[in-house]
């Protein structure tokens, strides 16, 4: 009797196992059918990419843009939050498909990755304490302590200044914190990010200087091995410009139109 029961139990177990395996198989097939675009970002760069107060939802101009690009291309967008200086290596290693992170198109990066058509015009500006009267322009940073984010165009530009004492941080939020703590004389960062910080943080003890140090274009980076994907992205970007979606996203984040 016990033996019979055991056989019955085993049969039932096997049937359940087969069912579960079957389900798993189907689920896998559904997932395979869905095209996923793995996007790398450094989500600490408002208003381009940042997380909401609960640290969950990714939002910002870049996030809306890449979701619209993905939708246009028929891909589900999956966001991966990485350090800024880890984005190009992740693309090269094939861990992500594209990177959108307020990333400036420049010659050095073009050696390693391809860039989409430019999608945003930016440049660098300086933030100092409100009562600072000795830094008015880029040249005044000579011999001063300046905070920048690691691996950025700001870091590269500031390092060109004579006798400058550069302090490098993982995120722009950390550079602002250092200025607040009076650990540095100035922060150099992308102007829209500096402006957004001053507007949103309610910080009244700092000011942005009007000097724009560089003119830079942001692009979506793609691995050099993935020419086809680059074409698809450029086609999608063009479509979004034509159908007004790009302008809609631009106005949402910057309050003006892109033209
Ligand atoms: N635009 C700058 C760069 O490409 C900064 C980008 C960033 O910090 N996300 O280096």
Tell me about this structure.
The chain is α/β, with parallel strands linked by helices. Helices cover 42% and strands 22% of the residues. The chain has helices at residues 2-33, 61-73, 87-93, 107-110, 153-158, 172-180, 191-201, 227-242, 245-254, and strands at 36-41, 44-45, 49-51, 58-59, 76-81, 98-99, 113-115, 120-122, 124-129, 145-149, 165-169, 186-190, 206-208, 216-218, 221-223. The strands form 4 sheets. A 5-stranded mixed β-sheet has the order 5-1-6-15-7, sandwiched between helices. It has a 5-stranded mixed β-sheet with strand order 11-10-12-9-13. It has a 3-stranded antiparallel β-sheet with strand order 2-3-4, with helices on one face. The protein starts with a helix and ends in a 5-residue tail after the last helix. Residues 42, 45, 84, 101-104, 149, 152-153, 190, 216 line the site of glutamine (GLN). Glutamine is lined by residues 42, 45, 84, 101-104, 149, 152-153, 190, 216.
